[in-house]
Design brief:
The protein has 163 residues and is of the alpha/beta class. Helices cover 28% and strands 34% of the residues. It has three helices and six strands. The protein starts with a helix and ends with a helix. The N terminus is likely disordered.
Length: 163
């Protein structure tokens, strides 16, 4: 009864517009590795892989890493900045803020139409350095992984709703 009443009031689930093409079933979406204009090692690979996994999880597209598909996702890491935001008593940074700027575009291969585009999408993540450790422990790796997963989730959700 609730479903019938919700359908009558115009309510629809997120991604409903994509159901017009059966949520991508029977189509391929190419998500090649993003390009990297920053100096941060492998950030483009982390973001690209997170996007592929999220597309597999949330759509029925066959996701391929090549540059050929019915739909192509192309991305570019524009910049990566790590800025200290908290300092300890010795004056050393104890927390850092990561800022990653990404440009992303989704294109229909057959028509050449741009289905989604954002020329500068900024994502932030914070990580802390272990202060009691005698050895350096790179905490930024986990922070980049968290940022990549959040970016992928946000991108795929926005892309599905934009369609």
């Amino acid at each position: 009864m609730v479903c019938v009443s919700l359908a009558g009031c115009g309510y629809r689930l997120a991604g409903q517009r994509l159901n017009n093409v059966n949520n991508g079933q029977g189509r391929t979406i190419a998500s090649p590795t993003f390009t990297n204009r920053s100096t941060t090692y492998r950030i483009e690979q982390r973001l690209s892989e997170a996007v592929r996994l999220e597309l597999i999880r949330r759509t029925r597209y066959k996701v391929v890493p090549e540059n050929t598909g019915d739909v192509v996702v192309s991305g570019e890491v524009l910049s990566v900045n790590a800025t200290p935001i908290l300092f300890n008593e010795q004056g050393r940074a104890s927390s850092f803020g990561l800022l990653v700027d990404v440009s992303i575009r989704v294109t229909d291969s057959r028509t050449g139409n741009v289905l989604f585009q954002n020329d500068r999408w900024t994502f932030r993540e914070v990580f802390e350095l272990a202060q009691n450790s005698a050895e350096f422990v790179p905490e930024d790796t986990a922070a980049f992984d968290r940022l990549a997963r959040r970016f992928a989730s946000s991108f795929v959700g926005t892309f599905l709703d934009a369609r």
